[in-house]
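Handout, tutorial session.
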Amino acid sequence: MNVNEKFVQYYDDCPKFINSLYFDWQKSILGDYTNTNNTKKWQTINYLSILIFQAWEDFLTSSKIDETGEIVWLNNFLQWLNSRILRDNWSVLKTNFAPTTQEFGNYLFYVSSMYVPKNEGELNSLASMAISSERFKNIIYNRFN
């Protein structure tokens, strides 16, 4: 069962309870998103961020057996990394994940800061560069050893 999904689903029924489950600094990292009339928004953003971070961990776990190919996954991951909100959430939530996932997330944000792709070809080039780096290879190696 996905607890975070249930938090979003039932937020309107018990917002005080669900808000009480998080530290103030976790909620405030989203800044403007917590100051809206829709107090559920930060919780939904938190949930979606966790899904993305979990996808990174799942990728690292299954990369040896997944036939999709690394570039497909990295293209998806890199397109999400322009989000300041996601970056802020990563800084707060990354300790909930395995050390190799933390290293991978940090690396993805580093790669995405190099330049913003303007088309599919540039995105593929950026993903290819990331995959061929020694840092990426070490992250994959460390995940299985």
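The second record follows below. Compare its token runs with those of the first.
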Amino acid sequence: MTKASARTHSNALLAALLHDLRRLDDKGDVGHAQRGAKWASSHWQEIVTYFDLGENEVDRDEVITAISLHETPYANLAQAAYGKHKICADILKTADALDRYRLPKLKWWPNAEFIFLQPSSELSAFAFDLVSRSESQHISGIDSAESIWNSLGELCHAD
């Protein structure tokens, strides 16, 4: 596999932050990727301003493409855009899969059959622990965002 550049990592991070922004529900919300890509495209200047990103720090086309393709099965990704932005799209698809630990059924959890870029066992365990800890804190009454930051801090500072 080709090593991703720092810019591709930045693009993937931004795509991960935005990819489900137009999702309506956690079930089969077909089309949310296209809605998200359209929204991000039409609000691009606001996004780069909000995150204080310089014009050359991120690639608009790569971010928008990754968002638009993240719900598309690999079998349907024979598009030129995927070939051009494969690494970023694969990173986002894997990150999106790791987020599935928050769903209540084991059969909905990450499945290696559906992602090309396989996460390490350590990364999978980290994602599981982050979801478990943050959900537990949120159930106990802590604000959603605060519960995620608290859990991230605990995991990053664990011995």
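Points raised in discussion: Residues 2 and 87 are 8 Å apart (CA to CA).
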